[in-house]
Amino acid sequence: MAEQASINLGLEGVYFDESMICKVDGVEGKLYYRGYPIEALAEHSNFEEVSYLLLYGKLPTKPELESFSSLLSSNREIEPQVLEYIKTMAGKSHAMHVLRTAISMEASLDKQADEATPEANLLKSSRLIAKTGSIVAAIGRLSMGAKYVEPDKSLGHAENFLHMLQGEKPEPEKAKMLDLMMVLHAEHSSNASTFSTIVTGSTLSDLYSAAVSGIGTLKGPLHGGADERALKMLYDIGKPENTESYINGILSSKERVMGFGHRVYKTYDPRARIIKKYLTKIQSDSTEEVQNLASIALAAEKMMVERLGKSHNIWPNVDFFSGPVYRHIGIPIEIFTPLFAVSRMPGWCAHMLEYWGNNRLIRPLDYYKGPLDLKYVPIEQR
Ligand code: CMC
Fold first, then answer.
1. pLDDT in tens, 292-329
2. Residue-wise DSSP of 16-81
3. Is position 94 annotated as part of the catalytic site?
């Protein structure tokens, strides 16, 4: 009976372990990676350094960062069989399906896939971080019908991503902005995709399988898929003056405005605050399309904050302002969620490595409330 079992739907409010990786303060609207405030990392760090911080638990020295960055760049090559698969499927199926399968294929081609030492798992983490970037850039480029571009070892992670996606060395301002977006998305404690990554790893399955679980979970519109949906909404709204009636329509039909609300943040998501600042900066200095999207986004945010902010604790989350910024950088909407996976890979790997340090099989209970001892009736008699 329900009174004997304490049920937390959606595991809301349940702590399943301790962690040293990330603190999300949903009351104050603060986020820390390994103790460092996200604002400081956004301003001073970069994706490679944050990946190192998450995986190794400390900021790297200069030589450590150089050797980690070159480990990443030397692992950017996509295996030929995987590239062939991407060439066959890109543009024909949702990019998250293609990414999920491509990472599974990489696993089957990695001789170390089932080697479970901490050293092997750290190496596989860097492979996963590096290859996911190349794979998503290739999916994006081949989906547009353009020719595959090889990774360039001399470029940073974000810069190389844009080079492989767009076929030319990116403008430094755009590469820097993508790098910032990657930093902001790199980690977020035990969110749904990180949790499913850990659930898979807790069976002592391998790191690739765990990452593939994370990718599958990230795809959903309540999680990583929200940025794609939020941008589609901005396109649907079309012009700033349509914003009010459009949002009213969503709210009166009790649907959700994508890019708002959060299970943990009951205040403004600090990542959304940072992205909003950059969006406001680029607003007057971008294409007509981005300027329009930015104006709609800012109008929608103002309205939602007034209507649902303080009264219902529903505030913009990281996914709301991302779309116009990605469009400014020249990223197609089809790879928004896969790009989230590129950014989140260090977080998934760091959690998996930490959890394996004190592994316990995750196996919660559900409370069965159906009938018992039913009489089996042979099929001919039903
Ligand atoms: N628009 C309108 N109403 C909302 C929204 C929203 N975006 N989010 C929550 N609500 C309402 C919801 O309808 C419910 O109202 P009522 O109590 O009257 O039924 C109330 O707020 C509580 O909602 P909930 O679903 O119980 O809250 P939750 O903590 O489970 O929700 C959430 C978290 C992220 C699933 C939800 O806010 C949502 O669906 N947001 C839209 C999707 C989205 O932006 N997801 C990205 C999350 S952040 C980044 C990431 O994880 O990838």
1. 999 999 999 999 999 999 899 999 999 999 999 999 99
2. ----SSEEEETTTTEEEETTEEHHHHHHH--HHHHHHHHHHSSPPPHHHHHHHHHHHHHT-PPPHH
3. no
pTM: 0.96
Q: What angle do CA 226, 275, 93 make, to 5 degrees?
A: 30
Residue nearest to atom 32 of ligand 1 (CA): 262
pLDDT digits (tens, 9 = 90+) for 304-314: 999 999 899 99
In degrees and rounded to multiples of 5, residue 204 shows phi and psi of 65, 30
Nearest to 91 by CA among 143, 147, 165: 143
Question: Which atom of ligand 1 lies closest to the CA of 312?
Answer: 21
Q: Which residues contact 353 (CB under 8 A, 6 or more apart)?
A: 55, 118, 121, 122, 125
**Which residue is closest in CA terms to ligand 1's atom 50?**
223
Catalytic residue among 163, 185, 188, 262: 262
Nearest Cα neighbor of 183 from 34, 4, 374, 315 is 34
Is 366 a residue of the active site? no
**If 0-12 CB within 10 Å is exposed, 13-18 middle and 19+ buried, where does residue 371 land?**
exposed
Residues with CB under 6 A from ligand 1: 191, 222-224, 226, 256-263, 312, 314, 317-319
| Exposure on the CB side of residue 219, measured as CA atoms within 13 A | 14
What are the φ and ψ backbone dihedral angles of 316, each rounded to 5 degrees? -60, 140
72 close to 49: Cβ distance less than 8 angstroms: no
157 is catalytic: no
Number of H helices, E strands in the chain: 17, 3
Tell me how far apart the terminal alpha carbons of the chain are, to the nearest angstrom. Answer: 30
- Tokens 């079992």: give the residue: 5
